[in-house]
């Protein structure tokens, strides 16, 4: 993703009440922040937050946390929240490689990965959010019935992700190479910013749903 630095973004993120600044101290206690025992769903690499904000508005009984590492990107989500605050949504301006320091085992019910950066060079494969390294991190924080839902328009990244899922011993619950033409997988689909951009160019959207192996990984 090409990133334009926005002046004042760090300061806006640092002072926003919608951003959780002490995420590591909240480990194991996220439901206290939301004040309920509802499910916790997270999106890693949330970008400008459109997908999560629509989901959170539709599902007030679910608690949502969006993770985005760049303040210049997160700033746009914060601005939208200032216009229309949602009580069941918070943001973290953090790198997801530290996921296990933010969430305790079993604390997360669903992880969304949408149009994750492809990192095309082989030497950067470990940085892909669907690498086996990341799947291990997800398995460590997901509830026993938790799952990952991943969408992309990048066929190479999708094939790599299917290989990672198999190598890590996860089970594939759903898989499509043309989401918008697959009535079952597309039911209730909420488009992300990237999804809208790429599908309007005619690119098919790929999606998989996978669950980690039972027991400690
Ligand atoms: N999910 C959005 C969508 O579908 O429109 C944004 C997609 S954009 C290509 C990927 C986003 O993931 C970028 O904003 C990037 O900064 C973020 N990202 C990538 N790796 C990350 C990581 N390790 N931790 C947190 N955010 C990350």
What does this structure look like?
This protein is of the alpha/beta class and 217 residues long. It has a single domain, classed as Vaccinia Virus protein VP39 (Rossmann fold). Helices cover 33% and strands 20% of the residues. It is built from 9 helices and 7 strands; from the N terminus they run ααβαβαβαβαβαβααβ. It has helices at residues 9-15, 30-34, 50-58, 71-83, 99-102, 132-141, 155-167, 183-186, 193-199; strands spanning 40-44, 63-67, 89-92, 108-114, 142-152, 171-176, 206-211. Helix 1 crosses helix 4 (71-83). The longest helix is centred in the middle third of the chain and has 13 residues, at 71-83. The structure holds S-adenosylmethionine (SAM).
Keywords:
globular; 7 strands; 217 residues; binds S-adenosylmethionine; seven-stranded mixed beta sheet; 9 helices; Rossmann fold; alpha/beta; 20% strand
């Amino acid at each position: 993703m090409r990133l334009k630095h926005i002046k004042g973004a760090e300061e806006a993120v640092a002072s926003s009440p919608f951003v959780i600044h002490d995420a590591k101290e909240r480990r194991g206690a996220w439901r206290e922040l939301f004040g309920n025992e509802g499910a916790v769903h997270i999106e890693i690499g949330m970008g400008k937050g459109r997908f999560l904000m629509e989901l959170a508005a539709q599902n007030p009984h679910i608690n949502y946390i969006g993770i985005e590492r760049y303040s210049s990107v997160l700033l746009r989500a914060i601005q939208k929240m200032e216009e229309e605050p949602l009580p069941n949504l918070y943001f973290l301006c953090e790198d997801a490689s530290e996921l296990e320091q933010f969430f305790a085992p079993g604390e997360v019910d669903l992880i969304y990965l949408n149009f994750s950066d492809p990192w095309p060079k082989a030497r950067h494969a470990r940085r892909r959010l669907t690498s086996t390294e990341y799947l291990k991190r997800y398995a460590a924080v997901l509830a026993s019935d938790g799952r990952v839902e991943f969408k992309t328009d990048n066929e190479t990244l999708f094939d790599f992700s299917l290989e990672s899922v198999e190598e890590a011993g996860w089970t594939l619950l759903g898989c499509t190479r043309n989401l918008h033409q697959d009535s079952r997988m597309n039911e209730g689909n909420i488009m992300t910013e990237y999804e809208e951009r790429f599908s309007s160019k005619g690119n098919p959207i790929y999606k998989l749903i996978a669950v980690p192996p039972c027991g400690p990984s």
